[in-house]
Structure formats: structure tokens, C-alpha cells
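This entry is passed on directly below:
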Amino acid sequence: MKSNQPSGKMKPKYKKSKNDKQRLQTYIDVLDNFLDSIREPLVVLDFNLKVVKANRSFYRTFNVKPDETEGILIYDLGNGQWNIPKLRELLEDILPQNSLFHDFEVEHNFETIGRKIMHLNARRIYRKSNQTQLILLAIEDVTDREYYKRDLEELVKNRTAELIVARKAAEKRKQTAETALSEIKKLKDQLEAERAYLQEEIKLEYNHENIIGQSDGLKYVLYKVEQIAGSNTIVLVLGETGTGKELVARAIHGLSLRKNRALVKVNCAALPSNLIESELFGHEKGAFTGSHSRHLGRFEIANGTTIFLDEIGELPLELQPKLLRVIQDGEFERLGSSRTIKVDARIIAATNRNLEEEVRKGRFRDDLWYRLNVFPITMPPLRDRMEDIPLLVEFYLKKISKRMGKTIEFIPVTVMDALRNYHWPGNVRELENVLERAVINSSGPKLRLVDELKKSDKDLTKTTQTLEAVERAHIIQVLEQTHWKVSGKNGAAEILGLNRSTLRARMRKLGIRSQ
């Protein structure tokens, strides 16, 4: 009989024993303990995104209970507070299709714990036996860190903005400081130039210290000085050589609103024609051969004060348009520079020439003449103010005697008459020179004249002698008086008020030979 039992060996059907259930429960307990030992909140989701398991940190962090979570769709947790759009996108789209894990951050308002920033890490896991897909979602609360980071970024942003504002303010202060330094340097240069100019002026010996006299002609001059001093009007002082035109200019400046600054003087006749432009308007370094540094001109030095242009009739014709521009617009350029400089200088000009005649001869511009001849003041010659001679003699004798250490107490009537009757073609300057020679010649308290002052006005008009002839005769007369002693104490050079080298040069030119 054939047995009904199947041929071959058959595996007996496995039946779970009680021990197996205990072992599984042990595994589950171990897993629970493992999950609970992790500080970060963890939750396990099935394929349908329902909660399978969560650890203790999850329940504590989100203030929920196990019976409120397990078997619940993740989006429905906490009355839908987990319905986060970014979480949906992750779990329903990205993770099931093409990623084993993915992490990102979400900022969300949770009803139980408030607004939080959570870092989520989602990972797919499988059960190999049946390929069941599970999702492990690890959660980290990074709220404090992110807020600190945002605060820090905001702080950095604000601080950066403050630094930008501070930098702009610093740049503005720097520009202001540079501008101020530039102005200070400009003023320093101007003061240095003015100081150098004043040092040169101090070296000069002025012909007069005051305007001396009581004649009607002189009183009228002083009246006009007081009349014009307070304004900025251009003044043209006219008069013969030696009448004291510079004194008039100084008197006008001394009574003006600009008196706190020095009067700047330029003698247009004393400067070579190739240097006068540089002296008046200045030059830049390298503007011409020998210009090794920048030089401020007299007009720039005179900014804010008064400039006295003596012997304006000697100004070269080619420079007159530049002077005209300064008078009209207060503008000029230094030699070698294209930068326009503006100045505010009050102009007083003086001349012993007839400028109208110079205009007719084409040696002086008519437009410059009209601009200068706004307020003319004519200084009368000494021959028209003979009543002032005693006062002038007294003034100069005190000045010269003090300088030479002598005392002159008596002026003979004959000497004063000679002084009064002389024509004085050299005016006050000639009077001072005559008195200086007289003081040198006087050995006691009585003044003794050296010069013969016998020629009257008529004699002077009739003479046919040239100026060189008169000068030659006068030099020979003094040399004879000193026994032809040219230099040294009481020599001809000292009596004539000349340098010995200058006297020797004049003697050579005039053909005077030592005897």
C-alpha cells in the first residue's frame, strides 16, 4: 500500500513560540529605549505618512502624548499644526521619488510651543523582509541659533551701514580738513610773502615819516586824502619827483579800513621789464629759466589790503592789459599757470609823467588811463609851498642830527633865506639831501651849507646846461672840498650820500678823474 504521506522531506510549518514573542517584545523595548535615549525629537512614519513611533523627546518638545500621535497622519498632528507646506513637499514629492534623505529648515508657528525654527532630516528606511518603506524624521530646534544668527546679521548690517555713514563722514571731514589745510597753506604762503616783503621794506630808508607843512596847497591835498580814504576807489597821485607821492599813498592807506594790513609797494621804474610781470603777478616753479620755486606776486600779497603802484607811467605797454584786467575784474594768472586767481586789492597809483601826453604818444593805453584817473590828487612842488620850508628844515634837521649823533641848535638867517629862495627842482627829496650834507659839514651847533643855492627860477629857465653837466660840476665841487677824498669819513661819497662804488662809477661816466 502506498503511503499517503508525500514523498521527499517537507519543512514543518513554523509556529511562533512564546519565547519568540518575548524576544520580539525585547527588541521593541530595546528600540524604544534607543529612541528615547536620543535627545533630538524623532518620529517614524509609515508609507502613508502616519506616525508609527516617536521618542520621548518628540512628545516633550511638542507637548503631545503618544495616544495623540501614533496612527495619526503627520499633517493632522496637534489639530493640523504640522500641516507645513515645505514638509508636504518633502515627504510627498522629493523623498519618495529620488532621495534617501533630505534635510532643510522650516519656520513655523506651532500652537503648543509657539514660533520655532526647526531643522528637519528625513530618511527612508526599509524592512528587508517585506520591503516596507518607513520614514525616519529627525527634528532639531535651531530657533535660538537662527535668531542669534539673524540678530548678528542685522547687527552686522546695521553696523556696516553705520560704518559706511561714518566713513562718508570721515571722508567729508577729511575733505573739509584738506580744504582747511589748503586755505591755511594759502594764508601761510601769503603771510610769508608779506613778511618777506615787509623785511625788505624795513631795510629801506624812507624819505619822509610824516607829511609836514601848513600851506594851502598841502592842506587841500590832506582834505582830498581824508575825503577818499574810507572808500575802495582807485586813487592816482600826480606830482613831480620828490614831492612825497608815496606819503600821500601811505596816508590814504593809514586812514582806510585796510590799515591793519601792510601797504604793499611796487616801484614800476625800479624793476627790469622782464621781471616786473613776475613781481606783480607771481610765477610758478619752472615758468622760466631760474624759477626754482613758486613766487607770489605783489597783487596776491596785497589781497585784502592796499597796493601802491609807484611810477605807473613806466609800466611796459605789453603788461598794461593784464593790469587793466586786475582793475576791472580782480583776476589774473601767475606766469606758467592757467589757474585764475581772484584778489581784492585797493589800488593807489602814482606818476610824475603826464599820462594824457603818454596816451597821445601811444606809450600808455587810454582805457587804462581812464580806469586809473578816477580820483586824482596832485602833490604840489616845493617851490609852490615855500611857507612849509621852515617846518621841513626843522623836521629833517632833528632826524638827520639824531642819526649822525650831532646837535644843530642854530640856523643862520642867511641859510634859511637861501633855502627859501631856491627853486628846488628835486623838491623835498633834494631839500633833505642838501640838509644832510650841511649837517655833515657842520662841526658845531651852527648849520653850515655845503651847496650853493643861488640860482633863481629865472636863472634855471635860462640855463643851457644839461643835467649831466650840473651833476658833474656838483661832484667836482664836493671832491675839491674834500681834497679829492672819495671814500671814508668826511669823504665825497659820504657827503653826497652815495656808495663809494656808485660815486666812482658816476665819475667814470662823467669823465671825472682823481687828482
The radius of gyration is 56 Å.
